[in-house]
Design brief:
With 322 residues, the chain is α/β, with parallel strands linked by helices. It contains 10 helices and 12 strands. The mean pLDDT is 97. Bound molecules: 3-(hydroxymethyl)but-3-en-1-yl trihydrogen diphosphate and iron/sulfur cluster (SF4). Iron/sulfur cluster binds at residues 20-23, 81, 104, 106-107, 172-173, 202, 204-205, 232, 274.
Length: 322
């Protein structure tokens, strides 16, 4: 097959993109656990929402399960980056499992906020997606106090105990703009609603959205690398479409790119979600280069330097040379 290659065909790659500090830590936690204790290491739910990451870890000996009851008594289980409710910790303890908690520290921060506000008898409006693991984990910290607000549509229907003792919190991977709008509408309905002490939408989510806005303004097509169940990756597609891209698609890897998407396109934007290994982006760039998009420019909008230490359970055993 031959492809038309006008000199103007170019690719703008967003930076920052790909792995955030919480994902890096969680994936490393499984890798280190496999090195330290040997296979199998059980992981409750996908460690991060990326099919390639899960497949790669499976090949190394990780076994992914839905619930802790599937883990043999006494075995090691890693909790995913999205966090778990206290009930899951209790179940694991009852079964005598050895746990490694790979919950991102920025998700743990939201759990702590939920517990604190609940202990002060606030009702908590948790903005997030129903059924998402992070929302289930956070809601499990204070089930009697948390009311889920899944998008703008829920603003008018959510019920609260006391509208004057009300705070909002959110999932870490939402659209910043959409959440701002949801909060504005919630405040119209509940004027005494208070804000969380700090942003719950994390630095990585925010930065990837800022970066994709920049490339979307100049690209007709924005390709977002990420899996279909990755909330933050899906938000990047929406943000790209809202900020100038004519089309945007979420792809697990280069094999999902359809040639017709490139028809008439001169500038393609490329970015990736926080759970996406960089080699998948490299594959997309190679695929585009074969189709005449060899002029690649990286557009950096924010510099990132956040790093998190490995879960303490692992650090202890690494220090002891287990
Ligand atoms: O929460 P989301 O579906 O975006 O999850 P991913 O794709 O695994 O990305 C990492 C985010 C996370 C672990 C929770 O903030
Ligand atoms: Fe943590 Fe944010 Fe990454 Fe989620 S997206 S794992 S909250 S750094």
């Amino acid at each position: 097959m031959t492809f038309e290659t006008p000199a103007t065909r170019r690719v703008l790659v967003a930076r920052p993109r790909g792995y955030c500090a919480g994902v890096d830590r969680a994936v490393q936690a499984v890798e280190k656990a496999l090195e330290l204790y040997g296979a199998p290491v059980y992981v409750r739910k996908q460690i991060v929402h990326n099919t390639h990451v899960v497949r790669t870890l499976e090949k190394r000996g990780a076994i992914f399960v839905e619930e802790t009851e599937e883990v043999p008594e006494g075995a090691i289980v890693v909790f995913s980056a999205h966090g778990v409710s206290p009930a899951v910790h209790r179940e694991a303890a009852e079964r005598g499992l050895r746990t490694i908690d790979a919950t991102c520290p920025l998700v743990t921060k939201v759990h702590n906020e939920a517990r604190r506000f609940a202990s002060q008898d606030y009702d908590i409006l948790l903005i997030g997606h129903e059924g998402h693991e992070e929302v289930e984990g956070t809601a499990g910290e204070a089930p009697d106090h948390i009311r889920l607000v899944d998008g703008l549509g829920a603003v008018d229907t959510v019920e609260v105990k006391d509208p004057d003792r009300l705070v909002w919190l959110s999932q870490t991977t939402l659209s910043v703009d959409e959440t701002t709008e949801t909060v504005t509408r919630l405040k119209e309905r509940f004027p005494n609603l208070i804000d969380p002490p700090s942003d719950d939408i994390c630095y990585a989510t925010q930065n990837r959205q800022v970066a994709v806005k920049e490339i979307a303004a100049e690209a007709q097509l924005v390709i977002v690398v990420g899996s279909q169940n990755s909330s933050n990756s899906k938000r990047l597609v929406e943000v790209a479409l809202d900020h100038g891209a004519d089309a945007s698609h979420l792809v697990d890897d280069a094999s999902f790119i359809r040639d017709e998407w490139l028809d008439g396109v001169t500038t393609v934007g490329v970015t990736s979600g926080a759970s996406v290994p960089e080699d998948l982006v490299d594959g997309v760039l190679a695929h585009l280069a074969e189709r005449g998009f060899a002029d690649v420019e990286e557009v950096e909008s924010v510099q990132e330097s956040v790093r998190f230490a490995l879960p303490h359970e692992l650090r202890k055993d690494l220090r002891a040379g287990v």
